[in-house]
User: Fold this.
Amino acid sequence: MESRDFEARHLETLDRDLGRFSNLEVATAYVARPMVGTGVALIFVIVAGLAAALFFGQTSNTLVVVVAAVFGAYMALNIGANDVANNMGPAVGANALTMGGAIAIAAIFESAGALLAGGDVVSTIAKGIIAPESMGSPQVFVWAMMSALLSSALWVNLATWVGAPVSTTHSVVGGVMGAGIAAAGFGAVSWGTMGAIAASWVVSPVLGGAVAAGFLWFIKSRIVYRDDKIAAARVWVPVLVGIMAGTFAAYLALKGLKSLIDLSLSAALLIGVAVGVAFWLGMIPVTRRQARGLENRNRSLKVLFGIPLIVSAALLSFAHGANDVANAVGPLAAIVQASGTGDFTHAVTIPVWVMIIGAFGISFGLFLFGPKLIRMVGSQITKLNPVRAYCVVLSAAITVILASWLGLPVSSTHIAVGAVFGVGFFREWHSERRMRKMRVAMPDRAEIAPEERRRRKLVRRSHFLTIIAAWIITVPAAAILSAVIFHGIGIIAG
Assistant:
């Protein structure tokens, strides 16, 4: 008997020790995960520097190009960690994609967009932010671009750590502006361009939010609140998918593929209409087949919007890779050109090896550090389901095309996050409206206390204020940081 008791006590002790060991393993894995991510990122940055030394060749400026490649790789990692969340967040938040699936799709399509359609003349200098000739010499120009690259990367890194999705385009713009002012004074900056960019802080999220809210209202009125939801969905889901397909076709023709083929806005819109009609007709039998046997309730609608949401997120990633890779490697390409040829006043084209650094950097950044911002955009601002998330991604594409037509300089980040806010605020307004109608119909119903009404807000105000504040200070913060770094480089080099 005593031996059995001893054995039982021994086993209990062993179980406790194993439990502690298991908890220790979990805790160690939790602590080590960020360290592994940082380690892999550091290895990628070092490899980018070695690749720059290999492809650029041995010249007196090789060290400068290697340092610039390291900064460019660091910026690409931060773009992947911050910017890509805007495309994948809604699909993950709506449970249409798992986090792993979203990261895999985004990595593939971001890289494809960057490598296949990202070779446009993309230097931020060519966009008229500063006058390159005001720099005076290639050396000063290179210092300015390195300052812009490092400052924008540091700022996006800080924003990701805080949990604020910011515009990487605006970060680079602020960095170039700050370095330009430090190098050549305020007269070097095109203040008209900067004024238009400042206006986009308001235009981008408002347009994105309005379009997303409009689509959500349309879906609610035409499908969700109908007596026979499934019958209404059979009619309108093919139309909405056709709109989505046509919008993305026009978007990719106008923005994502402009380096392969140059199309006017009217030609891109004609392509969009043709593709949209084809998808509308093709989706009619598909939707009817999917709708068979579905119950007449809102939950059933998720089935019909799931696949279009995943496809649209993939297409947004392709277009994002084609366009925003320039934020990581545009200044790097300008440095490579100025260091190799001494030419810093003409348009800058991106060498293939530079583009590869940008494409792989975005993918690594997304894989290693992206989940935090994906969760923020997808679920922490407001609750998304497939219908609301579909409105967000469709709004992002439509708003970019509308802004291009109007000639407005907008940010894809501001549009996508603004669309999430638009959906959330529309839900708040709609909920309040229904409650007012209920109070009129049932005057004896107890009034909800003000604090309870505040608790029921569908958009988290803390995230809203944090993101808006980060948007407002992005350009000036990056500019100040860039000016400080420029003077620091001057002191070191001098």
The chain has a mean pLDDT of 79.
